[in-house]
Design goal:
330 residues, alpha/beta, 11 helices, 49% helix, 16% strand, binds uridine-5'-diphosphate, binds magnesium ion
Amino acid sequence: MSEAGQELISLLVPMYNEEAVLDLFFERVDAALAGVDCRWEFVCVNDGSRDATLARLVAHAAADPRIVIVDLTRNFGKEAALTAALDFATGDAVVPIDADLQDPPELIAAFIEKWREGYDVVYGVRRERQSDSPAKRVTARLFYNLFNRISDTKIPADVGDFRLMDRDVVEDIKRLPERNRFMKGLFAWVGYRHVGVEFTRTARAAGESSWNYWKLWNFAIEGITSFSAAPLKVWSYLGLFIAMLGCAFAAFLIVFALLGFVRVPGYASIMVAVLVLGGLQLMSLGLIGEYIGRLYMEAKQRPPYLVARVYGRGEPPQGRRRRVAPRLEA
Ligand code: UDP
Ligand code: MG
């Protein structure tokens, strides 16, 4: 680590259609960081925005040498955008932060203080989620409970990507080769000395969230299947339980038939058995499909993102074309 005051901190900002909030973002971040004794770098990843995000970013970068823009070839999703930002960051510590100002940049000073005390990871803990709907709060709570029960890697509840990570931590995260990048899980998996700092998450400053419940659901499945095999294993126990019930019922039926009590053809019981078992089998098949799908994606070894151009950092103003991410050139 460099001497206090000389450390370079990289802010990692994934941006997807953020033209509405971009100017405000730089304004507020500048104001928040003015009093903090560090050097700064902004690694802004344009994640295939369809609005003027890139043009605005380039305009900012022209006036501010601290800004580096990594322009991806299309929308790869926030996790991939963050991965790109991590790969391009050069700071002694990095701070992933959302462009919509839901993560207060004023907190970064507190992160740095803890970091200087010797913590490797300092994460923001959302004090209350009043900016979220009750339904989102309940489902988020359920997700964290389930995840931490069935995964060996524990992720703290109400912690997002907003955090400070030391260079050592970043290097280790970069070594994780998986293509399905559930960042919160990867951040937790590497370990290190960590501490939380509380903050209140406000509503988006402008623009729209690109998440909906279907995306969140898929994100949750991604997280769980990337970090736990329990959903695969549960089926053998459920199957055993149902098979035992079936045996008990069969024994009961045989006795019943021998005693001459069987008069009605068993439509109801057969239908119940067929429907329940059919449903369970489809569910377990679907679950196995989730894992096989992930194995397939990993097996293809495609890079998590592709870079179209890099702006800033001494590159010509129109940017430099790069075919592949730096991690693949190594
Ligand atoms: N984001 C991104 N790629 C995407 C979706 C989102 O880079 O495909 C960025 C977005 O620009 C923002 C951050 O990820 O900086 C968080 O997105 P958003 O505010 O939509 O999510 P929410 O706060 O609702 O969880
Ligand atoms: Mg947001």
